[in-house]
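thought: fold this chain, then report.
action: predict
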Amino acid sequence: MLKNGVFFEKKNNVISFDFSDNYAQYPEGNVLRVEIKDIDYGFLFKLKTLNFKPETTYLSLFLDPDIGNPLTNFASYDSAGKILYVSSSGGPYFGVLTFKNDVLCGAFKNEEYAYPYGGVPDSLQYLFMSGKLKEKFDIFPSDYSIYISRKIFPPDSLLFVIFAGENYDTLLEKRKKILERINIKQETNFKGISKVWPNPFIDPYQKELKIEVMGEGRIIFYDVTGRKAYEVTGLKKGLNVIKLKNFRNSGIYFLKFENKKRIYKLIYLNLR
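observation:
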C-alpha cells in the first residue's frame, strides 16, 4: 500500500515501511526499515538497517509528545526501569521503554534547540544521536522533545515500546506486562536502591514512599547532620511500600541500603 509516498505493508498484526536516503545530498542506497506491532499495552517498534554499509551507524527516534499544554511538560528517565517519559504534573504520562544498556536517552527544550528552525538542526541531531551532546533531564515545566539512540553494527536493530498511562504507577504496571508479553529480559546492573518514587518535587508527598530494591535488606534514613531518623527492616527484593509515620521535618535525607554491601542514595522529602 502506498501512502504519502511511503510503502506500508501489514502482515500478522505488524505494520512495516521503509525509508531510503534518496533525498540526501550524496545518496548511498541506504534503507531503514521500521516495523510496528500492537502488543495491547503499547506499540513495539523495531528499527533496522537494510543495505547499509558495514560501518558505525546510529539509529535514533525523536519525539515531541505534547502532554496537555506543550509548555508545561517535564521530561525524565528512570534508569532502573529504562523508561523515558514526558508528563505534565499529575499526568497523563507518555513513555518509551528501552531494553539495552547501551541505548542513549535524552531530552531537550524545543524553544532552545528546535525553534525557529522548525526542527532540530542536522548538526545537533548528530550530536544527540552519538551521545556527544546529552542534555540533563529537568523537572521544571518546558516544551520538551525526547530521543533515544543506539550505536549499532548492521544487521543489529533498535528495539523499544511506546506506551502511555494516567500516572507513573500505570507505566510501571504496563512495563511488567510488556516484558511478559514480548518475553524480553532487561539487562540490569543496578544494585541496592534502584528507584524511589513518587518524585517528591512533582507530586504531593503523602508520607508514603515506594522503593524498589535489588535484594533483601534494610534501609536507614539519616538527616543532613548524620543522625539516624528512621529505619525500615525486612525489605524484600522488588517493590516495597513504606509508610513514614514519624517524620516531622521536610528536608534532605540520606538513604542507606544495607545488604551485603552498603549503598547510599540522596533524596528530598517534602512533608508539607
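thought: worth noting. Residues 193-269 form a domain with the Immunoglobulin-like fold (CATH 2.60.40.3080).
final: C-alpha cells above.
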